């Protein structure tokens, strides 16, 4: 098995970008999900309800965040000194405001009031203790530092979706883009689809990870990452084949055991 691709999302719920190599920190990939968008009341905004966020492409130029979108020139973001507390999936997290210029840029993109906030100290947010050790931390990802998916599982899901379409007399679907699932690391060469469900520990390159739990999926994978159009797949088919505990599942969540660097093409070993 090998590491097929690496993906970073500097701003939560926006479009990510691929990396040839990445530094692994205790709370996730360096620079991953350290920013998020909030409304005028300080409540978190995500692409689940605001798909237009996926039209924002953030990248890091050194330590500076650069936002690119279809509505305005690119913006270099400079955090200010103002702070506020934001609820991130039941965690109260103190974040730094990124200023009026970033707020105006995002408000124009979303056609509603919005501001950008930055997690200046990534040690503030603990991982759910039901699946973690004391001291485990996560940035602004939903729950865990990294998400792993495999190409074998995506191909099986594509086959199932094609079967569903044939049963319903629908046109053959286009294979899914893995970007729908927003993974950090994608593994190729897994012999058995969904074999990752049983993994407990995995090594990528020279960095070891614990597999905390499977990833239950929200509505976001049903939104086309290019057109931003909503649809029924893959949730419709996952509900037939990968539904338990009232949820649908794809991918597994990882917690790093150490710092290190991973690179595209690195060997992947189940420990």
TrEMBL record:
List, in alphabetical order, the Gene Ontology terms for molecular function in this entry: catalytic activity; molybdenum ion binding; pyridoxal phosphate binding
| Source organism of the structure | Nonomuraea muscovyensis
Q: What is this protein identified as?
A: MOSC domain-containing protein
MOSC domain spans which residues? 114-271
Q: Which InterPro entries match?
A: MoCF_Sase_C, MOCOS_middle, Pyrv_Knase-like_insert_dom_sf
